[in-house]
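Second attempt. The first submission of Rod shape-determining protein MreD had a stray character pasted in from the spreadsheet, which I only caught after the job came back as garbage. Lesson logged: always re-copy from the clean sequence file. Corrected sequence (187 aa) follows.
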Amino acid sequence: MKKAQIIAIGFIGLGLLDSLITFAFPIDFTYVHYSFVPHLVFIGTLVYTVDKPWLNRILISMVIGLGFDLLFAQMFPMNMILFALFGYLAGWIYEHMHREGSLFLIFLGCAFLYDLIPYIIYFMINHSPSLDTWFYKIESLTLLADLISILFLMYIQQVMSRFFMIRQYRERKQTTKKLNQIKTSRK
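This time the job returned cleanly.
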């Protein structure tokens, strides 16, 4: 399988896992019970695009956000815009910080802002709930789930990059071996 196919299947899997978790643990918009919102696709997008060139980050994030909007019936252009914005922002911050350890904090900050911006828009329209209620009932567990998701997806990204590097090395080695066989057979 090609790298692009594996990545596409991975994002589809993350989207299905997002919807399965949301179905199993529904979000309580009455703010009576605690609930959380999984952000596997969003965090996966950040992890995948953070080291790409700026235009690629924006375009890849927009496409993934558009697919997320179309498949999961959210506010239509909201995820596409937010994915592109945070895809660019995470990469820009990472380029200027030059520290591998800061990636975790960048992703966590983007995940928090990804929730905060729609909350502010909703609050301006509806004037409920209060910020402390929202943070206490939904966002606190969401941030905990995001912590686990970030660690998991960063680990998966490292494993996959190592897998593709080993695969590329083996293909290069096999090509070199074939070229050497062709050279020796001509002599």
